[in-house]
Amino acid sequence: MKNKFLILLLLSLFLFSMFSAVQAQETERFVMGIEDEVSNLDPGETTISVNERVASLIFDGLVEYGEANKIVPGIAEDWTISEDGLEYTFNLREGVMFHNGQELTAADVEYTYNRILNPDYGSGLRAKIESIESIEVIDDYTIKFTLSEPYAPFILAMTFGIVPEEYAEEVGDDELGRNPIGAGPFKMEEWDAGNQIILSAFENHWNKVPNIKELVIRSIPESATQAMELRSGGIDFGVNLDVGQLESFTDNPDYQVKSAAGAGINFLGFNFEMEPTHERKFREAVLQAVPFDQIIPQIFGILGERAYSMLPPTIWPEEREFLKENAVGFDPQAAAQKFEELKADGVIPEDYVAQIYVSNSRPNQVKTAEAMVTALNQSGLKAEVNSMEFGTMWDMLGRGEIGMFFLRFVSDPDPDYWLYRFFKSPDEGGSLNRAFYSDEEVDQWLEEARAISDQAKREELYNKVLRKVLIEDLVFHPLAHSTQIYVMQDNVRELEPGNSLLIPLVTPTANVYKE
Amino acid sequence: MFAYIIKRLLWLIPVVIGVSLILFGIMQLVPGNPAAIMLGTNITPEAVAALNEKFGFNEPFYVRYFLMLKNFLTGELDSIYYGDKVINIIGRRMTATIELGSLSLIIAVLIAIPTGVIAAVKKNSLFDLFSMFIATIGISVPAFFTGIIFIYLFSVYFQILPSSGYGGRFWTLSGLRHLILPAFSLSTVMIASTSRLTRSSMLDIMKEDYLVTARSKGVAEKIIILKHAFRNALIPIITNIGNQLAMMFGGAILIESVFAWPGVGRLAVKAVEFRDQPLVFGSILILSMLYVVVNLMVDIIYVFINPRISYK
Amino acid sequence: MKNKIILFILLLIQIYVNYQNWIIEGRVWSSLEYKFATVFSIIVIISLLLLLFKNSIFLKFKENDLYAKTLKEFNKGYGGKIAVFILAFIFYAAFMAPFIAPYSPTEIDYSNMTYAAPSWNHWFGTDDFGRDMFSRVIYGARIALGVGFAAVLVNASLGVTLGLMAGYYGGKADMIIMRVVEIWNSIPFILLALAIISALGKGIFNIIIAVGVTGLINFSRLTRSIVLQIKEKEYVAAAKALGAGDLRILYYHILPNSISSLIVLATLRIGISILVVAGLSFLGLGIQPPTAAWGTMLNRGQEYLIQAPWMSIFPGLAIIITVLSFNLLGDALRDALDPRQLD
């Protein structure tokens, strides 16, 4: 009898502790949900955005993004750019420490950039610094980059995370990606692959010691699951919520929903080497058939803003007005008539079914494609949505097998990054030119604009490019600037979304904490 | 018995060869160059060439197959996406998968068999009707839907269990708390089908002559049911569990996605999505081998219960 | 008499539906889906008329011994009857979708793309594009049944062929075939389907193939065991002695004897196939939007689980009820078509 009682007591205790409400978490521990699994934290290989998001917390660069995307000093105290725009000289701070206690010197900076420049290493970041001709270490705290030709956005590449030469040489690239050591505000504690990464505050950071002492980064790919985690208090902060879930948080006082404009552009593109998308009339008819102005705000909700330009709203907003006024508008009758004519002319084959390709990891784009297909079918053009993994789609795009596609592009705040690779002729440096668009004038403007540093002149050139490709030739149709949306518990302070994908937990202006 | 186990383990060899051939064949049909996919928008021809060289994508297909199989067997296979050895990546997730699978199996057996036995003994009672009604619905509900409903109920509404993720090894409190919801969601289908089968095979056995004789000789009902009927009913039940395992292995992949569970199934889905050929190869091959081994264990239990069957 | 009244009411409803569509809306033959619905309604009207006025035609079936026996067994439990009733309803919805759905399943009102709770106008509410969920669920029945049946057909024809060959030829052929099927089966089926779809691309036909080639082991094992039982029977030996070819024996003697078990298995497999397609949709590999399919709708509804639960509840229920009916039907058929009775 006594035994039974004891067992019962133990059992109830056990059950009580099992099912007791989720405990309130300590304020120094911050749990963050990200949209995908981190695969590699080598800052030279962070071409996947989640990797970049986490690596940026561990590594610091020579310069950083400050407010409104202005470049502010990071590890480099100050720098000088020569008159001709070919020489960049950086003065590093003294006493900047890596997580392993070694001091960061110019040699580490040199090593970092040489590593990325090495073609065998195969880094995707290489394209941004290809113009480097030589790197020269002047002394422990001074380094000089010499470019082969002027390249205005070069300074943005100075944000790459600096890796410790000695450590990286000793353990190799693979190990660096798994056990990263940088000079950033957080250091690696534990990596439970596929589940979570635990970082801790780096007490000897050159600038600020984070208020968050323990940072848990959990990968939760299903956005529904992430919403549930926020509701159950399992995470403090989530970045991957779809419109539907967001709505239920915006009017809930227990959560804060914050947004920042323009982390990326969603657009519809056409292939210029395929029938019938190379016909301007066809492209115009497609754009006329779909009421983008109506569907975009309703589908993207607070996750996006109707776009008329390829550039994010923070760059040169005046031009957007012109582009907006001259964009192709909704006109279903005209569209239907054009499709009729094109069919009669044999441009659209009898059994043609337009395939709209879209990446399945972008729910808003899939929905837009769905609405677009519905509208096209009503205007007399048979259409289907073809949603697939981004990788496959990108590969097919590269081989020119896709006529109409949705893409999202995110980059750093310089128009060159946003336009050059998309609209430059494919064999002249347009590495992302999946429309296979080629125009001599545009090529020339783009080339000119990247070599000068006079802002007004650059603006004029880029505006010419935009008018030509978006209004005249209808290469792309911008849909929406995606907005960065952060959803967090109401006790989180100082966490404001920036314009890039990076999560600003510790920045020159903020140091996130929980009340 | 020992010889039987060895013989069954040897079966793994043709399984590895067969499954690897099937996987490799399917992968050849999959469009897309893994190197291009990996580089995404940062693509440059040199980077693609470097990656192609590194992973041997330029070799003819038969060379690639043997290379892949050899590397898999020696543990040298490299994942493209993770930049790590496939064996390490899988190794880090294996515990999570095995914990989820075994707990679901245990839950299923512990709930389903008593339910089935009681339902059979008290045939047409309220308990019988109700539990069988639930069980019939149970086999018709998609497991991932059950998972979503569980999360909503237990994590959001009642807030008594964590909604997703892995909380540590199963013997720690946090580990067990994280394990409960996915394990229950995964076991629903097996609970439902096993309890139905337990009931019907118990009913069949209880009609048999020798039990009627035993009863007429005055052997206590409890002993009849537990000692004679149940033991014989177990044989079809175990067979059914063996058959259900395939469903469970499939369901686990969906459950892992719903609960953000860091298991091998979710890894395999991701590998397919990223066209990470070595990882697809490795993870699916490992899961198939696991399936064969678990089936072998079921068969061994079967031998113990049914000594009439001899294995040569 | 009671039966006649019910039949009469059904006939009136059917005629009213057709009157509305054919006469008032003029939807008869203009598209493929109207053609299907028109043919189906004519069949329904004719069979209702026959049942009402010329019942004697069906007496022939009732006189058949085997049929009567099966029917009697089938009617013993409630499960089978309920299942037949529900499935008839679902089939009707599937074929008649364009005639009975109150709204178009795909058309979008661009000025009002938002969800709304169930109401008198929209019985199941509307989804996030403002489309009527009731119409979409009805249209979804076509995809679910179509893919389910087609996948099982693929599955059964492959599995049965392999099983027949293994069982009939025996020896080495048997060993090799069954080993290959076992190896095939040891790949988790969702992953196999996933890999096949990523190789072939999406689209209904590829999904049917992907679902159809998984789980071959069920059909082949069953067929093989039946063949092994029947092969030893005297009449097969006699046929062989008379010089009948292999194919002839398989077709005339062995297949008819295995058909009842196969029907039971096929019924259960349809339910499983519908679940697998739903699972694939959950991973984003199901039927592509805007086509109304239950799995895809359920997956979409997840996003709105809290504010618009009807978006997931109704497609979810549709899946559960359909699969449940197939399972109940399978159970009832198993009891009714017990192979031991047919022997």
TrEMBL record, chain A:
<dbReference type="InterPro" id="IPR000914">
    <property type="entry name" value="SBP_5_dom"/>
</dbReference>
<dbReference type="InterPro" id="IPR039424">
    <property type="entry name" value="SBP_5"/>
</dbReference>
<dbReference type="GO" id="GO:0043190">
    <property type="term" value="C:ATP-binding cassette (ABC) transporter complex"/>
</dbReference>
<protein>
    <submittedName>
        <fullName>Peptide/nickel transport system substrate-binding protein</fullName>
    </submittedName>
</protein>
<feature type="signal peptide">
    <location>
        <begin position="1"/>
        <end position="24"/>
    </location>
</feature>
<feature type="domain" description="Solute-binding protein family 5">
    <location>
        <begin position="70"/>
        <end position="427"/>
    </location>
</feature>
<dbReference type="GO" id="GO:0015833">
    <property type="term" value="P:peptide transport"/>
</dbReference>
<dbReference type="Pfam" id="PF00496">
    <property type="entry name" value="SBP_bac_5"/>
</dbReference>
<dbReference type="InterPro" id="IPR030678">
    <property type="entry name" value="Peptide/Ni-bd"/>
</dbReference>
<comment type="similarity">
    <text>Belongs to the bacterial solute-binding protein 5 family.</text>
</comment>
<dbReference type="GO" id="GO:0042597">
    <property type="term" value="C:periplasmic space"/>
</dbReference>
<keyword id="KW-0813">Transport</keyword>
<dbReference type="GO" id="GO:1904680">
    <property type="term" value="F:peptide transmembrane transporter activity"/>
</dbReference>
<keyword id="KW-0732">Signal</keyword>
UniProtKB/TrEMBL annotation, chain B:
<feature type="domain" description="ABC transmembrane type-1">
    <location>
        <begin position="94"/>
        <end position="302"/>
    </location>
</feature>
<protein>
    <submittedName>
        <fullName>Peptide/nickel transport system permease protein</fullName>
    </submittedName>
</protein>
<keyword id="KW-0812">Transmembrane</keyword>
<dbReference type="InterPro" id="IPR000515">
    <property type="entry name" value="MetI-like"/>
</dbReference>
<feature type="transmembrane region" description="Helical">
    <location>
        <begin position="178"/>
        <end position="197"/>
    </location>
</feature>
<dbReference type="InterPro" id="IPR035906">
    <property type="entry name" value="MetI-like_sf"/>
</dbReference>
<dbReference type="Pfam" id="PF19300">
    <property type="entry name" value="BPD_transp_1_N"/>
</dbReference>
<keyword id="KW-1133">Transmembrane helix</keyword>
<feature type="transmembrane region" description="Helical">
    <location>
        <begin position="9"/>
        <end position="30"/>
    </location>
</feature>
<dbReference type="InterPro" id="IPR045621">
    <property type="entry name" value="BPD_transp_1_N"/>
</dbReference>
<dbReference type="GO" id="GO:0005886">
    <property type="term" value="C:plasma membrane"/>
</dbReference>
<comment type="similarity">
    <text>Belongs to the binding-protein-dependent transport system permease family.</text>
</comment>
<dbReference type="Pfam" id="PF00528">
    <property type="entry name" value="BPD_transp_1"/>
</dbReference>
<dbReference type="GO" id="GO:0055085">
    <property type="term" value="P:transmembrane transport"/>
</dbReference>
<feature type="transmembrane region" description="Helical">
    <location>
        <begin position="284"/>
        <end position="305"/>
    </location>
</feature>
UniProtKB/TrEMBL annotation, chain C:
<feature type="transmembrane region" description="Helical">
    <location>
        <begin position="143"/>
        <end position="169"/>
    </location>
</feature>
<comment type="similarity">
    <text>Belongs to the binding-protein-dependent transport system permease family.</text>
</comment>
<keyword id="KW-1133">Transmembrane helix</keyword>
<dbReference type="GO" id="GO:0055085">
    <property type="term" value="P:transmembrane transport"/>
</dbReference>
<dbReference type="Pfam" id="PF00528">
    <property type="entry name" value="BPD_transp_1"/>
</dbReference>
<keyword id="KW-0813">Transport</keyword>
<protein>
    <submittedName>
        <fullName>Peptide/nickel transport system permease protein</fullName>
    </submittedName>
</protein>
<dbReference type="GO" id="GO:0005886">
    <property type="term" value="C:plasma membrane"/>
</dbReference>
<feature type="transmembrane region" description="Helical">
    <location>
        <begin position="5"/>
        <end position="24"/>
    </location>
</feature>
<feature type="transmembrane region" description="Helical">
    <location>
        <begin position="307"/>
        <end position="330"/>
    </location>
</feature>
<keyword id="KW-0812">Transmembrane</keyword>
<keyword id="KW-0472">Membrane</keyword>
<feature type="transmembrane region" description="Helical">
    <location>
        <begin position="262"/>
        <end position="287"/>
    </location>
</feature>
<dbReference type="Pfam" id="PF12911">
    <property type="entry name" value="OppC_N"/>
</dbReference>
<dbReference type="InterPro" id="IPR035906">
    <property type="entry name" value="MetI-like_sf"/>
</dbReference>
